[in-house]
């Protein structure tokens, strides 16, 4: 006889396999087990409970689709995989929203100086640039990890502590990625003058 207690005692992988064999209760237990961590991850980015709930539903729909199609291959790593899915959906939401608005807000110079000492020469021309569409195109050319930390820090106003927790790295690693992001933006700007980027 199926009891909720027995389902709750199963490991994530066992619940996944049970769901794939047709036991819908297994999926319910799996979602309830990790819901709080998933919503917290999304809230770190959105800072909006209603939006976080909507994006969580989108993440869960994606999860179910992957499981139903037999494409799940993260055996033993369900929670880290779902946290990545949730984080990426939240970040994608902001990217789409920014594209829709056709601009990023300029990053205040004083914040840049406080965040990364020694970047004064890198930041002013890049992040205070009049043509934010040009800056956005350059940002999109950065390596993924550098682009992510820059967007989370300045466009989503997250602290380095929050970024480190969300991306599962140390604060020093997050700071290092930001430093390299700024250096690479400077190089891109030198290599792709604004007139050429239009």
Return the domain count: 2
Q: Could you say which structural class the secondary elements and strand pairing correspond to?
A: mainly alpha
Parts with pLDDT < 50 across at least 5 consecutive residues: 100-125
Q: Cα-atom Rg, whole angstroms?
A: 20 Å
Query: Mind summarizing the main beta sheet?
Result: none
Quote the beta fraction.
Answer: under 5%
Q: How does the overall form come out from the CA principal axes?
A: elongated
The count of β-strands is 0
CATH architecture of the largest domain: Orthogonal Bundle
Features of this protein?
198 residues, Rna Polymerase Sigma Factor, Chain: A, Butyryl-CoA Dehydrogenase, subunit A, domain 3, 2 domains, 12 helices
């Amino acid at each position: 006889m199926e009891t909720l207690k027995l389902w709750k005692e199963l490991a994530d992988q066992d619940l996944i396999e049970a769901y794939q064999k047709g036991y819908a209760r297994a999926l319910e237990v799996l979602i309830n087990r990790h819901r709080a961590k998933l919503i917290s991850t999304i809230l770190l980015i959105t800072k909006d409970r209603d939006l976080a709930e909507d994006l969580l539903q989108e993440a869960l729909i994606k999860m179910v689709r992957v499981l139903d199609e037999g494409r799940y291959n993260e055996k033993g790593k369900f929670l880290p995989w779902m946290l990545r899915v949730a984080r990426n959906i939240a970040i994608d939401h902001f990217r789409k929203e920014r594209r829709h608005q056709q601009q990023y807000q300029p990053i205040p110079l004083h914040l840049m100086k406080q965040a990364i000492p020694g970047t004064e020469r890198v930041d002013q021309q890049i992040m205070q640039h009049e043509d934010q569409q040009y800056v956005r195109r350059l940002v999109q050319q950065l390596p993924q990890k550098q682009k992510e930390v820059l967007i989370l820090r300045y466009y989503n106003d997250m602290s380095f502590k929050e970024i480190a927790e969300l991306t599962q790295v140390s604060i020093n690693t997050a700071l290092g990625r930001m430093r390299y992001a700024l250096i690479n933006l400077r190089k891109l700007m030198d290599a792709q003058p604004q007139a050429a980027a239009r």
